[in-house]
Amino acid sequence: MKRKHDQKQRPREEQHLYLNGFWQKLKVAWRHAELTRWLILVFLILFLGISTFYTIKAKTANVGDLKASLKTVTTVIDRNGKKAGSLYSQKGTFVELPEISKNVQHAVIATEDRTFYSNHGFSIKGIARAGVNYIIHHGQINGGGSTITQQLAKNMLLTQKQTFTRKIAELFLAIEINRVYSKQDVLTMYLNNAYFGNGIWGVQDASKRYFGRNASQLTAAQGATLAAMLRNPTFYDPVKHPENATSRRNLILDLEQQTNFLSSSEVSTAKQEALTITNTYSATNNYRYPYYFDAVISETINDYGISESDILNKGYKIYTSLDPNAQTQMQNAYNNNWLFPSNSADGTMPQSGSIALDPQTGGVLAVVGRRGEHSFRSYNYATMIKRQPGSTIKPLAVYAPALENGYHYDSELTDKDMTFGKNQYHPTNVDGSYLGQVPMYQALAQSRNVPAVWLLDQIGISKGVASLEKFGIPVPKVDQNLALALGGLQTGVSPLQMAQAYTAFANNGKMTTAHFITKIVDATGAVIVDHTKISSKTVLSKKVAETMTSMMLGVFNEGTGKNAKPIGYNVAGKTGSTELPDSYPGSGTKDQWIVGYTPDIVVATWLGYDKTDEQHYLTASYIGGIFKQEMTNILPYTARTSFSTEDAAAIASQNGQSTGSGHSGDWFADFENSVGDTLNHAKEKVNEWYNGVKGLFGH
């Protein structure tokens, strides 16, 4: 047994001797190479490099402009040259420190930074505490350790993302802020830039929102209530969570006693004060038209390369195409929830977006980006979505190029249950009926699918693709097929794109470039963006544009848009929808569209769910009611310019047509039309023969 024990012990001893020998050799090598000095040197170089980098970053951060940026406001000017409102960026109504009650100042200092008036913008204890937390939480920054100056640096100059590098940047920026500004200025900026929940920035607006008074009039209890919200504006919201707000308010009052800002009797009195909410805050004079202003900011960033921070904080004047009447009336229509589908069973709200353009200039007159509560620069369904346009594509991809290639408004189109090409593409009419032959204007007004596909097949898909691309809608190779006639675009389009395309019909064939901004002037008066010159291109002849309008008047007079026509006004345009997959449990649509216009305005409206699935789709048609309400509200504020043409159906009736061979009082024009129709009929017969042959070889 002793021998076995010795055999087990020997490997352990050998291992110990090996490790001991290795450690001795390492110590000798370490001393010989002086690695301690090298490690210290590397650490110092690294520290120096990081310090140099962040010092330079702090010095070039425009810290000296912080206070001025809180005071300056970027104003938005409407199409009439009048102030429409102002843009904001985490800023409320600016007030100087003497206009802020000491009760707020003391509550904030007692809670957030007790050494505020004596520290150099940072706290060694706070940094140590944050470092310990960083180690304990395995590299995760969990807040804490920041002085008021550091919080100001984070709120105004950095992102809210909790990272180690951001913490370092925050420290160096705080040191620079402390060097440039007095403590009074730092506290002023902090209180004017702090977020107090419910979309409220700054202590003055918060005082109005929660207590109905100026910041200079706040009591100790009210000051502590606002200071409580700085920790968590939602959890300590005195409107929605008064118990939480009162509990933390009382804790802060105790902290104020500990820091000798309040006596025990003052604290006792303050704790007895009832938490009464009085809201006298109004933002109507600031971010007045939120969806339009959001879009203006996006355009400055995307088209003109101006940063969000600059455009919001540097006192620009932004001249726009905004029509306050159109914008207000469009928004009023969207405020009528009865016009829209009810929320789904899980509470999901059907979404919608609408936009109005001036067809002569391309200027955006109005926009509503979504339903529900607005949040700053939220997703805009009028400018950002990409959805299949359904039959609203037909005028662009089929009927306009057909007119350009010899067809007439009354040309006979085939409307039969048929398939096309080798792939046996089989479109169907929504109502399941087929007329055999139908004049073009009737096919468009009734949005019959088969005649549109047949016509695109006759003129050639390439002509439809070329037409769409002229209208500013690119068509990838995968979409270059007959489904294009019915809106089969995988990428889809936005209401903004559709409205821009339709400006060509309302503007005698000239498509104008959609835009929000006409000019930007900086704080010195220099013009830095000038878009006052109209940008347009001719995509149709005036005659074709007029003929298209005459056909699209029929959409609202006797076609699919009849119920969407505003009473007392003539409107031209097109309706559209996209079908559900056959696998869905019920009938309905994914998307509903209307693009309508007069010579004065083009309006494109979309309705649908953000994501369509078996629980989220439209079970009835709502788009007509929405569009009708919009146009009923808006059109009285336009110039009410009349169309230069009549409804195509009326023209056909005056010419004694029922299906459209075409006669007129002018014998020469009558002869010209007769010859044209004969040639066109012959062309159609040839195309029918060619289509049959082509089907043998694939489409």
Q: What structural class do helix, strand and pairing data support?
A: alpha+beta
CATH architecture of the domain at 91-272: Orthogonal Bundle
Q: Can you tell me the CATH class of the domain at 91-272?
A: Mainly Alpha
Oligomer category:
single chain
**Helix content, binned percent:** 40-55%
Radius of gyration: 35 Å
Write the CATH fold name of the domain at 91-272. Answer: Penicillin binding protein transpeptidase fold
User: How confident is the prediction overall: mean pLDDT?
Assistant: 85
Beta-strand segment tally: 14
Spatial sequence of strands, sheet with the most strands: 2-1-3-9-10
Instruction: Determine the strand fraction and express it as a percent band.
Output: 5-15%
Ends distance: 92 Å
Please name the fourth-level CATH homologous superfamily of the domain at 91-272.
Biosynthetic peptidoglycan transglycosylase-like
Number of helices: 24
Give a short account of the largest sheet. 5 strands, mixed
Describe the structure concisely for a colleague.
The chain is built from 24 helices and 14 strands. With 699 residues, it is of the alpha+beta class.
